[in-house]
Amino acid sequence: MEWLQTLLDSSTTPALTAFLLGLLTAISPCPLATNIAAIGFISKDIENRRRIFRNGLLYTLGRIVSYTVLGVVLILVLREGSSLFGIQKFIGKYGELILGPALV
């Protein structure tokens, strides 16, 4: 994982940087455990392989859309000149209230 971090530090291409950040996020402990739990839940109906494959694709698409929307919102907010401290303060105060309905 160290070599990914050094590659990320030396990268100047935005697409490569985004890919490497996504890769580092995907293999970090919390999302990795979430992915394993989701795969276990999705694959409980072993008789119907098409349903398992379709549900896995839908899960993956949901994660892609969620992270993309979050990234776009953060880019738009940061381009307006907002400071990270203000965003951190807002998420710290209202994050728990917003997170549940947003993920559903």
Could you explain the architecture of this structure?
- The protein has two domains: 1-42, no CATH class; 49-104.
- It is mainly alpha-helical.
- The longest helix has 31 residues, at 49-79.
- The radius of gyration is 17 Å and the shape is globular.
- Helix content is 84%, strand content 0%.
Tell me the major beta sheet. none
What gyration radius follows from the Cα positions, in whole Å? 17 Å
Overall number of strands: 0
From the helix content, strand content and strand pairing, which structural class follows? Answer: mainly alpha
Total individual domains: 2
Poorly predicted regions: none
Helix coverage percent: over 70%
Question: In DSSP terms, counting alpha (H) and pi (I) runs of 4 or more, how many helices?
Answer: 5
The backbone outline, from C-alpha atoms, is globular
- H-E string: HHHHH
Q: Estimate what percentage of residues fall within beta strands.
A: under 5%
- Average pLDDT reading: 80
